[in-house]
Amino acid sequence: MKKIFKYITLSFFGISVISCSDETVLDLSPINNISLGDAFSSPSLIESSVNGMYNAAAIGQYNSTNPNAGRGYIWGAAFVQQGDNRGEDVVNVATFYQLTYTATYDPTTANNVYYWVDGYRLINRANLVIEGVTTAAEAGIITQDVADDYIGQAKFLRAITHFELLNFFARPYNFSAGASHPGVPYREVGIDTQAEIDSEIVLGRNTVAEVYAKVLQDLDDAESLITNTSLTKASANAAVAFKTRVYLHMRDWDGVIAEGNKLAGEYTLEDSPNGPFLDSYGNSESIFSLTQAATMNPGVNAALASQYNRRRLVAISPIIWRDPSWLADDLRREDNSTETEVGTGMVFTAGGAKFTLKYKDGVNYTDASPVIRYAEVLLNMAEAQARKAAPDLGASLALLNQVRNRSLADPDTQAYVAGDFANAGELVGAILKERRIEFLMEGRRWSDIHRLQGDDLQPINGIPQKVANGTPAAELYTLGTPYDGPYGVPAVPYADFKFLWPIPQIEVNANPTLAEQQNPGW
């Protein structure tokens, strides 16, 4: 008899250890099933274990017993779909995301349950990789340089996943003095024995400040350790880019700028706003994306090109479509679709409603999941320049125009100029609107809604009201005036307990400490 590590659904943050026969295996990759004792015993098996960590990030397990049968939780597609549907710039057409879209979830709702469960499954895989690779290097199985690269990649995934969970299950950084309010548990132990479960199961939530500190430390380590430079695995540059996102949420404007400046000359924006999506694996601005392949993606129930393209489960909302800041001839409105073909633009029309065409392959669903690209770094820096203690509005405006101008039909006459903004607040408002347009259908809206609660320049109160669940009528997309109704999904005030997702019921049932730390109201 030997102890092995196995992923199951109804257990302490989605994992458990059981005793079983020697034939029971650790599922560390979609192809090779190997025992935990062997997983880090050779360079090839270590590489397979690391690849399995990325497979867990791209596909997840969801409610299946098959570790390769998930629905894109958490970084393969779910972060896009859930981040979009929590905001007002999309419309949920069917029932697939209705509970997320209408804020009618509860502690048993699959959307929030498996965001948490698959998130911590991925974190545990990352922790196992860190521990296994460290031991392998000490034993001389791999060199320390190779080990450092793998450890850095695992720390990157551990950091960004904790940060993502924080934005759904905890109040934003500025909610309390010193961010001392409850965050999420920051897990740094790879669980593969009963003793480790017994010790970890009593641990509760770290404060938000503690989680941010650990995220930044892991990202700093990732930056210093990773030598990989490929797009679809963590890189040092991806760690830097993600730090601009983290510092933005912390309202550390100087931190955003310092990190963003490190990437100067490393990436360039594509000439066309469609460029990053025409070739999602070979463009000049994507910094970190996850592979989706015909033989290895979340499939019809999760792949982005399935959900947003072929199945048309989520439409662009008339709220953002008719916003006057989005110019009528903006290239991001390009729509060359017909009644039978979606075309090659950035938008297509079906039944009168508007849908994104950022995800092109509606047959094999091979479009990469775009986790972070350089356009976001530039807009993060633009906002920070306008908000810092001594605002540099000129630098902010230049960064904003750098992103926006490539989408304009006539930049010479349509680009923003200093006289368009009376103060820093108005410029920040334009930057935030540009984020909504530029990252539409990339899952970024919820992140901004979350961090802008109680903001001093552009505050949002809770989750804005939305167009009714279902396919919007064609006439609702008529340009010329801002959208002012009808609405069908009421706003959720920031003070409402439903602003946050509840910690899943299966988690509080298993963890007595977290049972006492459930989000209020749930």
UniProtKB/TrEMBL annotation:
Ordered alphabetically, the record's keywords are: Cell outer membrane, Membrane, Signal
List, alphabetically, the GO terms of the cellular component aspect: cell outer membrane
A Pfam family annotated for this chain is: SusD-like_3
Subcellular location as annotated: Cell outer membrane
Question: Which part of the chain is the RagB/SusD domain?
Answer: 355-522
Domain named SusD-like N-terminal is located at: 90-248
Q: What is this protein's name?
A: RagB/SusD family nutrient uptake outer membrane protein
Q: Which family does it belong to?
A: Belongs to the SusD family.
Origin species:
Flagellimonas oceani
